[in-house]
Structures are given as structure tokens and as C-alpha cells.
Amino acid sequence: MSRKLDSPVQTQMAVALFKGPMTGDYPGSKRVEGKQPAGRRRVYVQTETGCVLGMELDRGDSAHTVKRRLQIALNVPTDESSLSFGDLVLKNDLSAVRNDSPLLLTRNLMHRSSSTPCLSPTGRDLQQRDWSGPIEILGNSDRFAGTKQVVKDIKKAIKMGVDPIPVHSGLGGAYYFRNTRGDSVAIVKPTDEEPFAPNNPKGFVGKALGQPGLKRSVRVGETGFREVAAYLLDKDHSANVPPTALVKITHSIFNINDGVNGNKPQKKRLVSKIASCQQFIKHDFDASDHGTSSFPVAAVHRIGILDIRILNTDRHAGNLLVRKLDGVGRFGQVDLIPIDHGLCLPECLEDPYFEWIHWPQASIPFSDDELDYIEKLNPVEECEMLRRELPMIREACLRVLVLCTIFLKESAAFGLCLAEIGEMMTREFRSGEEEPSELEVICMEARRMVAEREVPSPKADLGVEDFLFDIDSEDYVTRIASPFGNGSGHGRSLLSKLEESIEEEEESEGEEQQALASLPPSKHIPSVAKLSMSLKTTSLGEKNLLKYVGAKTENVQMANTSSGHRSANEQLPASMSFVKLADMNEDDWTLFLEKFQDLLYPAFAKRKSVTVGQRQRLRLGTSCQF
């Protein structure tokens, strides 16, 4: 069994429970959290077009056994295919697979066809019968207790014939499920009906599951578990994220497209899907319909703290619900409910969108209670929790969580406010070009320091081309040089950003010395002058190297990749990010975090020194004026 950070995993549709030759009850309720099951467990095996087959695994089952069962039940070819579990490619041993886990069966590109429809089980005997109910929660954790009553209400309503209501807004498929009284109790979003997914009901189709989605660092079919992750990470229910869980749900209202063109079949039939299920919260309007001045400071801060931790790339006013607490809605008498977290926790550093970044509440310092809350956040424990509750989550997403949580903790301790932290994470546009954020510049410097440790000198006997293939971080350097696939233009914008940063630094040297005087003493924290010198070295010494690597990006990728076995990460264009985190091994990742933290305090001091009188940044999004 090999490690594969780039393997796509999706949790999709058409679930039928495969009862193997063994007998006994479903062991989900007997699972011990945090331990690998030694005996039988149930899993969901998915194809890249959305088909899912639930089956029970015995201790002696192998990947070949799983493929054979899938071939018999769904009549799909399993030759030239691989079975994946999160970041793991399962060669034969299935001991790492836990109960209620989604597995993915993928074919190579030569055997892939977008026109393959989602198939229902073809077997007629009891082995292919769906033994589950109309809706069930995937997982047996107490953390989903808030969703269990909602699931009971939906189950009763389905049996009584109360149909859900399709949501016509948005780009993906979503449905309001109701209780027996006809009241909406949950919003259900099938993961195979996301934008660009095979069964999207609104015409936004054309990609296989696991390929780049609306955000290229969030793959098609993977927003559902991110919705759940945001709820699980909302410690003490601070930000008011509604209870959310992954469910397997069966209903005829769900959409099934026929073939590559997304044509809908005329006759509706019962179909089972895996979806995110979020409790419906009654509200009066969203933030786009209401003046933001009446929003409580504490509520804005709580939501902002969560958004920073999960690097939310889609916090716009439409996904902040507003609920009046007194029936009138005077200042301090409204509550905010954040929803729609499917574009959080990207697989690499992205440009976030924080609607609240220019609200006056975001410029008010954190309270003592908020600082205490931030200080107690433990990203290592949070990652372990997510691995238990969402075993399909990628390590790349967890690294983003760790990095952003560390950034939040250190910046809040230094005295930055929410708006200042958000600005440091947000990219800037100069002369129509996107430049890396201050956070990304710090990360690039930390990566350079790690690379210098691994490769003492590029001036050895190796030629330039040999040197490029000897270092492990050429993909990272490529993204610096050419984030949009251009070998020259954006390499220059990054270098100019660093040089301009140095010039600004020299002009405000006196102010920074005063700010640095208040820093806690640490022998590991370099001075601003040393950081400047390293940035000058990067901008001057690596200019030709960066340009060269950018020009060779496509050839390097193709030379190291089999055209028939390209993972989704390899299909992502270089424009997705300036900084990639998943390509570091554990030792490099640990060293990177050390260097990253060493560089933070000089950057915070610089941010403090230029905050006064700083002009508002030009940003993409609903709040931007050009």
C-alpha cells in the first residue's frame, strides 16, 4: 500500500448495500473511535462518474475482492483501475480502511469516458439488495448528535410522502428536505450534483469527479466533506455553524444526467446519493440585504476567526444569514449564521475572500475572551479529530489548516486585529496582475530556506538543467515563476513585489525599529534586515532560474508523468497557487513550520508599521469597486 497525496477521492451516488457471503449485523455501532477496526466494516466504493456501491468487508478481503464485487454488481469494467482511500492507493491490503469510509475506483485516461452513465446494481439476488433506510448518517460519532433528530424527522416525512423542494438558486444541486408538517428542516447537497459534476442539474457539467472545480484547489465532488469539516472545527459552536453531517439518502427527486451532454432522463426513479446534510436555520435575510453596521462585533469576530483557520475562499454576504433576536433588529439584536463552507480548506494556499475584511467591526481589537479562545486552539488535535471523523480528507487540506491556525494564533498574540490578519492573507492586484499575499511571501521564503538546507549550492559541477531535476521543490519554484502558466510576466510581478517590499522597508526603518523593540526576545527570530537581505537574494539571484523553470513547466510535468495515470493534482494548472504544501515530506514540513514561525514576527512588525494610512487594497469579489 503506497502513499499518494495526489489521489482523488469522492463520495457520490446510487448506493446499494452489498451483503457479502459473511453474515451478521452492521458493525457501525460497535466501532471504537480512533482505532482501526480489526474485523468487518462497511464501506462505499465509488466510481468517478458518481456510482456508489455499499459493501461489507471482512478481515481477509483484498482490493481485488472489492473490484470483483463492484464489477458483478454494477457491470462496470475494473481492469486498468486503481482503488484509493483518501491519500492512499490500496494495492491489496485493506487494513487501513475504517468503517463508513468512501473508496474510489478510478480508471486511467485511456479507458475513461465521460458518457458512462451512473448504473444501478444489476444483481437480482439478496446480495445486491439495499439494506439501509431512506437516510442514514455516515459515521457513528457523538459529534453528529445535532443532526440525528433532523435525520429522524426527514425519515418520517419521506415515509409519509412529503417531498423535498429543489433550491433554484446557486450553481449546484440542493434540496430543502421537510418534516411531516411541511417545514424545512435541512438542506441537502448531493456531492455528485456540484458545479461541473456529472449529475449537476443546472447544466454545469463536463468534468469527472476529482478534477479541478470552481476553485482549482477544491476538486469536483469534494465540497461535501468540507461542509462537515467546518462544522466540526467550530469549537464550542463559537461561530454558529449549523449542525452538518454526511448522509446516504435515497429519493426520486435527485438528478441523474444521461451521458456527456447532461441530458435528463424523462422518468424519475429512486436513487441513492451521498450528500452533505445541514440543519436548516430560520432567518430573516442574509448580510447582503441588511446594513452591516448593526452586526455585533463579537459575531463578526467569531466568524472571522473560523474563516481564517479554514482559509475560506468564499465568505460573501450571501452565505451569512441574519436572524433578528427581538423582532426588530436594532444594533446588537441580530445574530449571524455562517453557511456554505464547501470552498474552505483548499489543498494549497489560495486567495481567500472575506466579506467582513472592510467592515468596521473587523478593525476592533480582539477581546480578552477571544484571545483566550484563539490561544487554546490546537491544530494538531484538530487534524487528528478530522482524520477520525472524515477519513477521506486529504493531508494537503490538513496542512493548510495547521498553517492558517498557527498564523492566526501568532498574529493575534502579536496584537493584530481581524482586518489586519485578513489583509495579510489576501492577494493584491497591481497593474492588472495578481500578486502573492504577505502570507504567501512568508511561506515562499520559508520554502527557500528549507530548499537551501537540502541543496547546499547550485553552483556545483551540475549544469542548470541537472540542478533543476535534482531539487525536490521545482514544482514550487515553477509556481512562483509562472503562476498563470506564463514563463515571464508573473515571475516579474512576484520579484517586483519583493523589491517594493524592501524599498518600503527602508523608508519606514525607524518605525519598524520602534515596533521591534516591543517583540518578545527570541534567538530564533531573524531581524528585519536579515529577512530583507534574503528577499533581495531571492529577487536578484534567482531571476534567471525562475524564468527558466517557468518556461520548462509543461515538459517537466510530462516527463515525470504517465499519460495514462495522471492524478488530479497533476491535472491542476500551475495558476492555482504560488505556494504548495503537499509536496513536502514530514521532515521538510516540520522544518518549514519552524522557519515559517521564525519569519512571522518581522512580518507582523512591518504590517503594524504600514497599517496607518494604508490605502484599501484592490480585490476581486462583491465588495470590490474598479
Write a structural description.
The chain has 626 residues and is α+β, with helices and mostly antiparallel strands. Helices cover 35% and strands 13% of the residues. The protein has helices at 63-74, 145-159, 223-233, 297-309, 368-375, 379-389, 395-414, 418-425, 438-454, 464-470, 474-481, 489-507, 509-516, 528-541, 543-551, 553-559, 568-571, 586-611; strands at 2-3, 17-18, 41-47, 52-57, 81-85, 88-90, 101-107, 135-137, 165-166, 175-178, 184-190, 244-251, 271-279, 285-286, 320-324, 334-338, 428-430, 433-435. The strands form four sheets. The protein has a seven-stranded mixed sheet with strand order 1-6-5-7-3-4-2, covered by helices on one side. Strands 8-12-13-11-10-9 form a six-stranded antiparallel sheet. β10 and β11 form a beta hairpin. α9 runs antiparallel to α18, α12 (489-507) runs antiparallel to α14 and α13 packs across α18 (586-611). The protein is globular, with a radius of gyration of 25 Å.
Summary keywords:
alpha+beta; 18 helices; disordered C terminus; 7-stranded mixed beta sheet; 626 residues; disordered N terminus; 35% helix; 6-stranded antiparallel beta sheet
